[in-house]
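Hello, quick one for you while I still have it in my head. No rush at all, and the record is pasted right below.
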Amino acid sequence: MQIVNKMLYFCLLSLYNFTVVKYNDKGKITRINGGEDMFKKVSLLLVFVLVLSVALIGCGGNTDAPAEQPAEAVDTSLEAITEKGVLILGLDDSFPPMGFRDRDGEIVGFDIDLAKEVANRLGVELKFQPIDWDSKTMELNAGNIDVIWNGLTITAERQEAIGFSKPYLANQQIIIVRTDSDIDTKADLADMKVGVQLDSSSQHALEADTATTDSLAEMVKFGNNQEAVMDLGTGGVDAIVVDEILGRYMIAQRPGEFKVATENFGREEYGIGFRLGEEAFIEAVNNALAEMVEDGTTAEISTNWFGEDVFLK
């Protein structure tokens, strides 16, 4: 509307200042200002145009109204999985009893049995994709896998990069040493070489305890926990920090070689990792697990691997 008013104003001003030049019968120039006379005649026409413009603008609606906002993106994450018909599970296949290879090379474990049942209830095939654990977030966000389901600890830092299911298992980071070791507390780790898996919750928990970390002779990082245990057994490191779920399982496989120190690095919880924003997919998996709790399936799977029901309710 302001633009229309300005255009009309300048038109009127130009007409008022317009000068008409005429010659009389003797050939002399007579200057006649067309201002007042022409202005009066044309003004009526311009007023009519102005009124018409206002009417048209009014019919067209408020031009100052905010532009219509684009609709929010629709979450098709669950639909994408069901249409594909395959759920790709990323894991470190050397993390017993959550996900590992048995003597026949088959991938088995507590998380594996849970995932198989969830995939069955979603009506899709389950496919396993072993990955480097320190590249897990990159693999997920690149679309190479659909979930990280392998004893994945929920942390504030990870929640900034990926989505999580509801917690399903409690855990803590424990210190494992050889049976002949005098190490029993975090203070005893001073001037010792301590092993952890690269980019694991164990590494993060140890690094978060700066007093302990600063006292170490060295933090040795391994590609997987099996390598860390082997190095501990041969004396390459003095202690290792691992998930309790994994650590106690490994100790049971090699009786008499290792023990657990009294102190640990705190309680934590496992969750399933998803891409950020895939709320529909996350909800479907949470609902499937809730159904499995109700019908006793999670208790059965848990008892098979741990001798008791450890699944969080």
Observations:
- The chain is about 40% helix and 25% strand.
- Residues 35-60 form the longest helix (26 residues).
- The domain at 77-163+272-306 is CATH 3.40.190.10 (D-Maltodextrin-Binding Protein; domain 2).
- The chain has three domains: 2-60, 77-163+272-306, 170-270.
